[in-house]
Structure formats: structure tokens, C-alpha cells
Amino acid sequence: NISGALCISQAWPGMARTIYNDPKRFLETYLTPYPGFFFTGDGAYRTMKGYYQLTGRLDDIINISGHRLGTAEVEDVVNHHVAVAESAVIGYPHEIKGEGKMLDFLPLKHLSWGYGTAETLAAELQELISKKIAKYAAPDYVQVTH
């Protein structure tokens, strides 16, 4: 059981070869961080049995009141809740904090649809994030979709 950057050792046809008008950025972003490998920009979790789970973008950062927070970090905590199938955290302009965050696209697992109200689930997720990461990491808004 290990987490880290998802990298690919061999290229395939049709894979990106450059960034339009910025080949240096392509090299710095995808080939330089892990020499000999193509860095996808995503994080991954590998189980002891060899299964992989993508945990989200490693370069997607939200700055909340001076705290830099990876969206994948919050999504990972939320996805461990029994009722949540998957999640996405997005930033938005906030006049006091600089950026706020909203936990959005939160479909529930089919068997969990009867799991309390959306407000109850939102409160539980905010508390879970506060405990596992920090109070400032709890989202301002939670959008539950069925």
C-alpha cells in the first residue's frame, strides 16, 4: 500500500509530444521531474495486490487564507466516506480568503442513497475533512448529487 506520482515508463502512439508554442514547458512539466519517465500529473495509490487508484491531480492547488491545499488531498478524505462514490473539489474566488473551495460532483453510492439528508452528509463530510486535514480545509459549500 503506497501512494505517489503516477509515471509511465514507455510512450505510446498519440501521446503528447509537446505543448503548443512552449516545448520547454512540456519538458519541464512532464519529463524532468522523474528522469526516464513521463509524469502524468496525477497521483496514484497502489494496493498490496497491485491494484491502482488515481487520487487526483498533484498540481491542482487552492490557496485558502495563505494555506496551499491540494484538491486531491481533500477528495481522498471524502472518498473514504461510506456514502460517497467519488468527488471533486474546485476553487472559486472568495473576497476574504482569496480562494474558497466547494466540494462538488458528489454522487452517492447506490446502496447509500437512503443515507440521511444531504445536509447531514454535508455536515459529516465537513467534520471529517476538519479532523483528517484541518479546519481551514473544510469546504464552504457541499453539493450532493444523486
From TrEMBL:
<dbReference type="GO" id="GO:0006085">
    <property type="term" value="P:acetyl-CoA biosynthetic process"/>
</dbReference>
<dbReference type="InterPro" id="IPR042099">
    <property type="entry name" value="ANL_N_sf"/>
</dbReference>
<feature type="domain" description="AMP-binding enzyme C-terminal">
    <location>
        <begin position="73"/>
        <end position="144"/>
    </location>
</feature>
<protein>
    <submittedName>
        <fullName>ACS2L synthetase</fullName>
    </submittedName>
</protein>
<dbReference type="InterPro" id="IPR045851">
    <property type="entry name" value="AMP-bd_C_sf"/>
</dbReference>
<dbReference type="GO" id="GO:0003987">
    <property type="term" value="F:acetate-CoA ligase activity"/>
</dbReference>
<dbReference type="Pfam" id="PF13193">
    <property type="entry name" value="AMP-binding_C"/>
</dbReference>
<dbReference type="GO" id="GO:0005739">
    <property type="term" value="C:mitochondrion"/>
</dbReference>
<dbReference type="InterPro" id="IPR025110">
    <property type="entry name" value="AMP-bd_C"/>
</dbReference>
